[in-house]
Amino acid sequence: xxxxxxxxxxxxxxxxxxxxxxxxxxxxxxxxxxxxxxxxxxxxxxxxxxxx
Length: 52
Known about the structure:
Layout: H1 3-23, H2 29-50
Helix pairs in contact: 1-2
């Protein structure tokens, strides 16, 4: 996965999480799942960009 695609996925995931929190609790399992996905994407981004 290239950095550009990863950044798009991060932004999509962040937007989705914001939308979910408008109608669900921060502890709702759906919000926690998307937050976990966002964390993984951010960690992947850091790993890819830290090696350069």
